[in-house]
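Extended Data, panel c. Modelled sequence:
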Amino acid sequence: MSVKKYFQKELKNAKREVSQLQGAAKLQYVWDYYKLWIIGIVCLIAFVIYFVIARAMTPNDNWFYITIANTQADAGNKSQIWRDFVDYSGYDTKEKNVYFNTNCYFDPFSEKVNQYYTYFVAYVDAGTLDLIAMEKDDLQKLGERGRLLDLSRPEASEIMSQYEDRLIYATPLDEEYSTEPVPIGIDLSDTKLVSKYHIYGDSCAIGVSANCPHMDAVLKFLSFVLEDGK
């Protein structure tokens, strides 16, 4: 017997049983025999309503997007560092998102490309990512691949002038771009990313996405991290 015929038979039997009952007995019969279906349908409807409302209330655009890679620290959305940065920046998260992504694990020294590196590249190419944080050696190796902004470029002039003493250099694998080391990151090992928030052990650096969409937010984040020194 097909599923369709089975349910048609069950529905026919149920109608016959219910037609023989009166008042509250009908409701009791339906509840006793179909309560699991009723509960399931109600839960499904509630989930759909919740999803629609949540989507409608969640901003689609970002003030700032940082990937904090290769860490188990509590540094994602709604964490202490996230709340402190939102307070410091004054960004209204009801209007746009401040996104701290800690779900990213890949080894820049490995020749293997995993799904997290693929996501990282996609965020860079789509113009979503502003910054990536990693341990210093990892970031330097990542910088060789060409996905981080050359901080000597005009769009990074303010970073270059303010943080020249913290620059990290890497020699690009693409020799057509350069055969000399270029500035691809900023050393933040002595900042509260390590001393207060304990995101990494003793080495920390950030790189700016090659297609960074919010350079003003990057500058705010650097100011926040370096405020009051350690």
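The chain has eight helices and six strands. This feature is highlighted in the accompanying rendering.
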